[in-house]
């Protein structure tokens, strides 16, 4: 996921020309590329929306995923796995159906295996 600055920098490197006009949609400077005037930021975000719609339809189109860390470090990951496992264990103790308890227990087992792989 690229920021607006990164998108513009990429187009500058590709030989695009930054114009003094700004985009009426996002307010970013427009670019002239091969004689065509366009907003590279809107162009890139359209692409992102398309690829997102293919993978998950739950995301709203206008939602900008800014400030989201793309990768968690191992320590954070372990922390959230601990929380997840704790939540699972809680669910198991509240679960009256023995078959579902088995399923949940298996999830916990898999979770612990994955957790151990991180250490
Ligand atoms: Zn724009």
Q: What labels would you give this structure?
A:
119 residues, mainly alpha, 2 domains, 3-stranded antiparallel beta sheet, 4 helices, 57% helix, 12% strand, elongated, binds zinc ion
SSE topology string: HEEEHHH
Order the strands across the largest sheet as they lie in space: 1-2-3
The Rg value, from CA coordinates, equals: 23 Å
User: What's the oligomerization state?
Assistant: single chain
- Tally of structural domains: 2
Poorly predicted parts: none
Describe the structure.
The protein has 119 residues and is mainly alpha-helical. The protein has 2 domains: 4-55, no CATH class; 74-118. The protein is 57% helix and 12% strand. The protein has 4 helices and 3 strands. It has helices at residues 4-13, 40-55, 74-94, 98-118, and strands at residues 17-22, 29-33, 36-38. It has a 3-stranded antiparallel beta sheet, covered by helices on one side. Strand 1 (17-22) and strand 2 (29-33) form a beta hairpin. Helix 3 packs antiparallel against helix 4. It is elongated. It starts with a helix and ends with a helix. Bound molecules: zinc ion. Zinc ion (ZN) is lined by residues 23, 25-26, 28, 39, 41-42.
